[in-house]
Amino acid sequence: GIGDSSPGTYNSAFNSRTGASPGRSDQLNSLYVGATTVSIAQGQQWKFTKTGQPYLVDSSGAPVSAMDAAQEHAANNRVGMLTPPAELAKEYGQQIKQYFNFLNFVMVSNLIFVVIGLISWAPHASSIISKLNDEGVGPASSLVGIAQLDFFFLSSYQPSNDTNWTVMVTLAVLFFFLTPLLYLACCAYWFKDDHEFQYVGVSSMAAGGIPENSNEIEDNKRVTDGEATWRLVASYVMFAVCVGVPVVIMWAMLFVWLHRYMQDDYDSKLKKKFSNLEYLQTLLTALVGLTPTISNSIFEVLVDLLAGFEKHKHWDVYRRHRIAKKMIFRIVNIIALFSLRYYADVPWYTCVSSRIGYQVLVFLLLDITFNNLLEVMYPLIMKLVNKCIGASVGSESNEEAKPEFELTDEYFEVVFRQYIMYMSISVFPMITLLTLISNIVEYPIDKYRLIYICRKPRGYMAGGRKTIAFFFFVAAVAGLISFPSGPVWFAPPAGPYLCWPCDKYAKVTAQSGAVCLPSFEEVQCKDAGGNPLAVYQIRDQIELLKSTDETVKGAADAWFDANSHLFTSKRCGCRPCVNAISCSCSGPVLSNQCSSLSPFSCQAAGTIATGGEAACTPGAGQCAAGASCSSSVLYTQAQCATPRSSYAAIASRAHTATCVGGSNNGAACSDHEACPGGVCNTYCPVPPKAKEDTWPALTQCWNCPESETTGLVNPTVARTAWTKLNFCSKCIGPSCICDKDCNFEVPIKVDSIL
After folding, report:
1. 136-161 pLDDT, tens per residue?
2. If you ran DSSP here, which 8-state letter would residue 453 be given?
3. Among 405, 404, 379, 406, which Cα is nearest to 393's?
4. 3-state DSSP call for residue 533?
5. Quick check: helix, strand or coil at residue 91?
6. What mean pLDDT value characterizes the chain?
7. CA 89 to chain centre
8. I need a labelling partner for 586 at 20 to 30 A (CA). Which of 138, 266, 424, 509 fits?
9. Which one is predicted more confidently, 251 or 457?
């Protein structure tokens, strides 16, 4: 039942009896399909491609050109890459013109999506880039790594941009569902398909389409209902296995490989091994992203085998089962990819929206590159191989040996890319621009394949524009519900699953009034009563949960129960799950302390600076004789001049503090007093003795390791914290991470950091 079939012929008597066009003079030699007339001459008959698409052959078995009769004399003209679609139609038929009209429609719709995306991203980019540069992590910095891309993603969106983001998502969702309707309208009133060539849209004789006897699969006529049933069941069991294989592969990469080596990856980053380019994370993201792409290509072969094994009796049923499998396979694998990515990252990363955005970017780039190379290079390679062994595959004299330009699959590929855009616009608004560019690239590549690689298209598009509109509708629904970035997952009561901005892109005010990351906006949290709630208050409650006093611990537990809405707050800084595993602040600069300190002070030659020297300006002659204006030890100890991006990412197991400068240069130290005339390069800016009162709550503004590890926290610390605080089920739900008997987790260690 797979491949070409010729089950029956048309004759003038039959056509005059069923579905003849009332508006044409050649009623006896035509078949009327809806608003479309497909001319049928005597002796012509329907055949079907391997994907079930119908086409006509003449009495000699040669395919009949799918073009208007008036245009047939113009066929066989020389065509090239600059030939417009209207001229291509003279050589390849009107269905090719319609396909390129479809690509034009998609590109215009993508342009509208770009405008919608800019509603939120343009104001965001205009303000966030300067903020990032001020903090030393923007495009103007010398950093190279995943974090450099965050200004594209929801992870760095500031609270003041919420309204723009909401408007963008709302308009995008509306346009998701308007797209199929607009396409139908364009086909009827702009492309004017009803007045030219339209597709065979009906398959049953009663509806005026392809007659029943021509829709039958000749080789499957003798298949009994019982055999057809068990074949269908067996086929879908095998299909379920096909769907599961890439899911298992992605799970193994993320939950076995990634989690098993997460602690080593964390330590390597802190020791400055591969910390800037982040090879491991980039490699893993690419491998996981390639899994669905490669699986989709392999399944293109398997789906035809499965649909053929089912032994359907009619081509329209064959087509429906084939395209349904392709839809389900791709959508399930994409949802699995991003769901596994989410739950693999949630245990160890403080900002998953950044991770999801990066995965979307990598996946789309790989998918576009892989598929275009496969479509263009594979036939050329096979042609070269066959030429070397003496075969003539791909030559003009062997037209049938060339690959098909299968219209149904071409439409499906483009709409699938739209689905990726639909599901991720909420976290990566400029994916709209990337999708537009990909379709602009698709246009000449498809034209090249049509002219130089593939055989002349034979099939009519069964179902026509209604089928394409249905593809758009399925893409819209799937994009809406795809976890975790589909718009529906940002809605209450369960959502949003993703939060923004990341801690490292949010201003934080400590209880003492010290300010961290002052360039960014401060997040506003509220308790169950709607009263303002500072981030440090949430952290205080977390600390109370660690108390050995059951009364104190119980009161804190009751507080979190009463404020359970914080666990699904859209602000990362308000979420207990984030605060339980992250540092109290990810910025080293205490604006209100550093602003009162001078970078330079007068220091007498041969003396050890104490930090109490008079402030000065180099070259101003403000110092007494014998003293020079040099760097202030106190200013250096406060690390006021050290940007967050330049901090030495240090953990207890990865760093031994030593004196920098002074009389004990290079010696081990634990505080600045051990380094006369220099600074102890401790991870946190420890205040000098006798300065604690004038330098309050300094430790609440330490630079966190996650600023150096793209949001990755210490896995051992994170897992232990959640287990002790009973946060596992509230933060990530039932998970192997929360199971002490789990085999695929980082080992539990008692770390000195705790």
Report:
1. 666 666 555 677 788 899 999 999 99
2. I
3. 379
4. strand
5. helix
6. 76
7. 37
8. 424
9. 251
